[in-house]
Queue: 2 jobs
Job 1
Amino acid sequence: KQEVTQIPAALSVPEGENLVLNCSFTDSAIYNLQWFRQDPGKGLTSLLLIQSSQREQTSGRLNASLDKSSGRSTLYIAASQPGDSATYLCAVLTPSNTGKLIFGQGTTLQVKP
Amino acid sequence: EPEVTQTPSHQVTQMGQEVILRCVPISNHLYFYWYRQILGQKVEFLVSFYNNEISEKSEIFDDQFSVERPDGSNFTLKIRSTKLEDSAMYFCASSEQELSTDTQYFGPGTRLTVL
């Protein structure tokens, strides 16, 4: 059974710092891995999607990597800003052809001015 | 930019009552999903829907739950007899065509409170 874990559960950094969020999954048979952002009481906003054949994806200050064989992904945020404060979720798409996403519990990031 | 919308944003109901949560997916999307998030817990998959039928459902999605696409735009989740443990944030999502490459777009959620 696929399990997704995110470490750390919470992170507090000063503005401008570069940071890395970690995601691990137990079964390497995935179609893709997605990173989402969730603001308090709000929905999920897709940040990056990495297909199983890819190693990384970049969007602006965000870079996500995927090492499928070791069951790990990282989300790198460069030059963090207070507006980056949110909960970051990773989710893997199972190879079931049904679109089922399995989520980690998230990392809550606080960027202090 | 197209977005998934959900109504109501907050629903309060008494235990045992029926509720219907409504979603309008992005118009050209073909796959539809419901997820839920109990406060402080992970986002959990409930059901996926394609070509007017359920593709997969989780163990949570028992006989009390049903989904429907009554017309070309709406996608609904019905809970027949709500329980206290159904209190959660319910998210609708949709994706375009290719499951392995297409992002799932999530709505803002409906917060369901069962008293």
Note: The radius of gyration of chain A is 14 Å.
Job 2
Amino acid sequence: RKEVEQDPGPFNVPEGATVAFNCTYSNSASQSFFWYRQDCRKEPKLLMSVYSSGNEDGRFTAQLNRASQYISLLIRDSKLSDSATYLCVVNPLRSYIPTFGRGTSLIVHP
Amino acid sequence: NAGVTQTPKFRILKIGQSMTLQCAQDMNHNYMYWYRQDPGMGLKLIYYSVGAGITDKGEVPNGYNVSRSTTEDFPLRLELAAPSQTSVYFCASSNSGKRETQYFGPGTRLLVL
């Protein structure tokens, strides 16, 4: 089983739709979790951290489910500019090396 | 702050040639990383460093070397370039390898022919 798994997609949704991605991780000792966004031919950039209590940033909501070992990202009212690849990142406990998922591609169309 | 900078942006190499990819950060981060990203694939860690003078192998270190003589710089050396090293290379830094976020450079696109 891969350490971090994501559905590669693409998720093809119309503007205004709500879309959700999941990411599963295999290391139960994982300590911290993030979602990054990567635009085509660009570097990854942090979108948001994921906390046990869940967190929201505008149209974006991130959740962590430790019991089932997955994190999720919910995007409400999708915009054309949300089209990108979303990378799940997991930091194991006492490790210098974060683990990146392969990413989920989102395409928002008019 | 310029953040993380990388040079060159794009390079074409012939098989067997060597080159150094430059990476610098001005955030005084102690942790730095080199990744490669092949088309449609995730990031694979090549090497990382937890401070000046300290480096360690990542998932795919073969064919590469690194050095970390200063906190700011973390160059990646390719010796005897092979077509399999055609990829996009990203350098990243973070204040802590455990909980802090990573800041990425804009990447170097390398084509080996």
Note: Chain A touches chain B at residues 8, 31-32, 34, 42-46, 49, 87, 89, 91, 93-98, 100-103 (CB under 8 Å).
